[in-house]
Design brief:
By secondary structure, this protein is of the alpha/beta class. It has ten helices and eight strands. The mean pLDDT is 86.
Amino acid sequence: MNNMDLSIVISLFNEEESIRELIPWINRSLDGKGLTYEIIMVNDGSTDASWHIIEEMSKTHPEIKGLCFRRNYGKSAALYSGFEAARGDIVITMDADLQDSPEEIPELVRMIREDGYDLVSGWKKKRHDGVFTKNIPSKIYNATARKVTGIKLHDMNCGLKAYRNEVVKNIEVYGEMHRFIPYLAKNAGFTKIGEKVVHHQARKYGKSKFGMDRFIHGFLDLLSIWFLQKFGKKPMHLFGAIGTLTFLIGIFIAIWLIIDKLVAQAHQLVFRPVTDQPLFYLALVAVIIGVQLFLTGFLGELVSRSSQDRNKYDIKKRIGY
């Protein structure tokens, strides 16, 4: 049973400069709000002093809980583990780089509690990033995401989000799917998804861990998640249907060629042997491809029914658990 109001899940990788400022900022933002909360710091295999600082601060800040991965698994793995550990009725996610403002948290909590949202996503309407390296690619990416997912969010990938606890407990975040948590939530039946304009801070320390390649990967992941959500449970519906259609087209062409030859023979007309016609080989290829696609769908059905543990991460150390 949940015994607190709020869980704040923060995934981090090499953010030693930011942590000492972030925790007090969160505490100031929630002071006097009447909320009980925990701060779950998930150290995603940092190679700097991040975990040492978390251990040190946890001695004077009992609200800090910590998970330390043995190596870098990625943001999706960090969020998944943080979601598993979260006990709060409402779960907040934010980045550790000081670009997400904790002062937005009380309003996000209010929107979940009073407005009845399942999920509220931040919208960095005014960004303090490079125009050509972040702003324009982000607008294009988010426009595509809105088209594919049907969710009218301006900033699908914003790290600052609020969720009902049951949302994070009923979705599986793996690979690079942290970019599409609203879509995962929608497909899990949590359809009341809102948005709030949030203040975006300029990066104070270090540099971004994500380059331009994240947008290319993002588009590919978007196609992957669309396919998996639509056909992941029933791959035969896609491959079987296309394979059957291709097979039938090939068979129809082959039968038509044979009938055409027999008719020409019956009327003593000039005809070409079936095997001398390029169309026959196209028909043969269609039949073979159709069979292969059908078998792909069948194998996909077998794989989808087999259990697999995609989210098993080696947690080296823990604080508060």
